[in-house]
Amino acid sequence: MKKSATLRRPLKVFVADSNSMGCQLMVRALQQSRQPIKVVGSATESVEIIKGLSANRSDLAIISADLRDGPITGFRVVREARVCCPHIRIIMLVDSPQRALVVEGFRAGADGIFSRDEPFEMLCKCIRAVCGGQVWARSDQLRFVTEALATGGPQPIKGANGTHLLTKREEEIVQVVAEGLTNRDIARQLNLTEHTVRNYLFRIFNKLGTSNRLELALYVIKQRGASQGSSVGEPVFAEPVPGSGSGRPLRGDSSLTSSCDD
């Protein structure tokens, strides 16, 4: 009921793009759409964005990876926004959904990645999904995330005070889920029943505050990024950060919500 009530009222959105014209165009498009969206502010530079988010109560922020004060500075802004305004959902706007940008966007704390090559109607769907508590990602973007997890090596998941949140067996479950294994595959590999695997997943989701496999993978990505202190441009990925490029339009709602069941 609470979620439905939230989605019925106008969603308060803050827009952050690399230049004033870009902000104005997006603000106008959002305001003229038939969706219940209210733009509460916009900005083009890092300091202005953080001040704007703190001063204007927002449900969601659309933050470009490139801002007026420099390329890829949007990733740092997303991290800062997560600290100063943890309640705000964040969509990261990228020129094209390249692997390094997608992984780093989720690692920084974005709830969804949206490419400028995608139609505006899809942005409205993305906003509704993210404000509704979903993670917005295409299947290929999810693959980028799972590949980054696989190459990063297993690390214990810890709380803010450094204590381990999961048991050793739960850590094993997390790693194989991040690799894309089904419940049946996990049961075979770890010599468990599928029922036991589902029970483990329910406990893991409850401990970490996640609700599906994608959110679990993103949780681990963000933790790993924080522990490594990584940023775009460092040798975290197998390929360097690309420049602008053309991407294929998103053909449908690809927010992924797989649960404990396959």
Structure explained in plain terms:
With 262 residues, this protein is α/β, with parallel strands linked by helices. It contains eleven helices and five strands; from the N terminus they run H-E-H-E-H-E-H-E-H-E-H-H-H-H-H-H. The chain has helices at 2-8, 20-32, 46-55, 73-84, 99-108, 120-131, 139-152, 168-178, 183-190, 194-208, 213-228; strands spanning 11-16, 37-43, 60-64, 89-94, 112-115. Strands 2-1-3-4-5 form a five-stranded parallel beta sheet, sandwiched between helices. Strand 1 (11-16), helix 2 and strand 2 form a beta-alpha-beta unit. Helix 9 crosses helix 10. It is elongated. Mean pLDDT is 78; it is low at 1-7 and 228-258.
Largest sheet, in brief, is: 5 strands, parallel
- Please give the count of helices: 11
Q: What integer value in Å does the Rg equal? A: 18 Å
Record the strand order, biggest sheet. Answer: 2-1-3-4-5
Q: Kindly state the percentage of residues in helix.
A: 40-55%
The SSE string, one letter per element, is HEHEHEHEHEHHHHHH
Summarize the SSE layout with pairings.
Elements (H helix, E strand, L loop, with lengths): L1 H7 L2 E6 L3 H13 L4 E7 L2 H10 L4 E5 L8 H12 L4 E6 L4 H10 L3 E4 L4 H12 L7 H14 L15 H11 L4 H8 L3 H15 L4 H16 L34
Parallel strand pairs: 1-2, 1-3, 3-4, 4-5
Helix pairs in contact: 3-4, 5-7, 5-11, 7-11, 9-10
Can I get a quick summary?
With 262 residues, this protein is an alpha/beta fold.
Relevant terms:
11 helices; 262 residues; alpha/beta; five-stranded parallel beta sheet; elongated; disordered N terminus
